[in-house]
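COMPLEX REQUEST
Ligand: protoporphyrin IX containing FE
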Amino acid sequence: MTTSTADLLKISDLKSPKGSFLLGNLKEFKQKNKHRILEDWAKEYGELYTIKLAAKTILVSADTDVNATILKQRPTKFRRFSKINEIFLEMGLHTVFNAEGEHWKKQRKPVTEALSVKKVKGYYPIIQEKTTNLIAKIKSYSETENTIEILNDFIAFTIDVTTEVAFGYKLNTIDNKEDSFQKHLELIFPLINERITAPIAMWRIFPNARDKELKISLKAIEDVMGKFINEAKQRLAENPELVENPTTFLEALLVESKKEKTVFDEKTVYGNVIAMLIAGEDTTSNTLAWTLFYLAQHPEIVQKIRQEASIAYPNNNTPENYDQLADLKYTNAAIQEAIRLKPTTPMLFFQPNEDLVLKNVFVPKDTMIITQNSYAAMDNANFSNATKFDPSRWIKSACPYQNHAPKTSRAFGGGARLCPGMHLSIIEMTTAISSICKQFDISLAVKPYEVEENFAFTMAPENLKIIFKKASTL
Ligand code: HEM
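STATUS: Structure written out below.
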């Protein structure tokens, strides 16, 4: 059945939360938990509603069908919000994440190849080595039983994995935090977040201390990358066989850059290598931290993960090979459950490339759209007993609930632009969580309600403090 134009609603017909005359809902949108505020508004104003950020009207969709349509109809009918590209380019980041159309297609191919299941299997020794470093660090914490802000170690862990996967370069950020990328990278996401929805580009007129710091950090990252790129170019020149079989993502991109009609110039090679780091670091480390947040409150689940680990790899501290991960189904389920309840990407930003209709609403070209994903994940109609942390809902043969709709949980996006790093991150997280639970008891050093959600392009835990102790049981 088609909807006639006369039946269509306009965006201005949709309900909207009350805001201030000049700034609209900007005040709420500056809150750390803006994704939850948008979730609450969906309950009050419907799954399609609008908000105003100063003069700009934004369509918010918590409707799972609409969100699936938007993800699926890319790159033709929808694109990422154009401000994302503007902000990324201003930071010198020419990446697959902010590219569109043909440019995106050409960049996407080598990125997908570099992160394919086969390639990730080959990266497993790197993941295992970095997990061993992480476990050694946690062991030192367990000996003192001090309170630990574990997110920093997870960031270091993911940076170390991605750096070796992408450039073949062995960093050991976990043990050497000072001279690391970490402090340079950590400014990027919060400032992208602030700038995307800023009504005025103040950083261009009156840059503040953080804006200046960002400039310094971007330059420092560019310098280190420049060194990696030059070394890789030299390797390729000295070893022509690498052109046929590049051993790292960076080498593969440099080979691409020599092909005819390539989109990979120097800037795009740099951009995509750094994109791997940026895209893979906060997302994976936040999810690891949120998983521990729940496990610290559920020793019985830690115990089950420990039993699973003891059967899968009885003689080792970490899974010995990639194939053993297939036996860690419950561990994987615990991670899926943490992703459902604390998605690190609860909102994504899009705009249509043409005038179109979403459900019964006429949406003009270039309307800014926020897809709100955590609303569906918290809905009992999609997940029975939705607020409960229960990994067993993700085990097909053991799901105790009537409602279980995994496709409504869109933490990795979807369609042609589905996160290409999904498999790598799941392997990293399963290895790390299984290894931690095998050896340590985990408890929260703060009350659960004192751990806050902070959305800054990705959603991180704030004030997550953990105490590790040597495992009391096997
Ligand atoms: C828990 C971990 C992760 C989460 C939750 C996550 C989530 C996402 C989401 C929601 C998107 C947007 C997808 C869309 O538009 O449909 C995305 C894109 C992307 N992710 Fe991930 N990601 C994770 C880990 C990684 C890792 C480890 C890497 C690489 C090392 C990575 C690389 C990328 C890239 C390159 C894109 C852009 C894809 C494109 O625009 O075509 N991600 N990710």
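REMARKS: The chain has 18 helices and 13 strands. The pocket of protoporphyrin IX containing FE is lined by residues 71, 96-97, 108, 111, 115, 162, 275-276, 279-280, 283-284, 287, 344-345, 348, 411-414, 417-421, 424-425 (CB under 6 Å).
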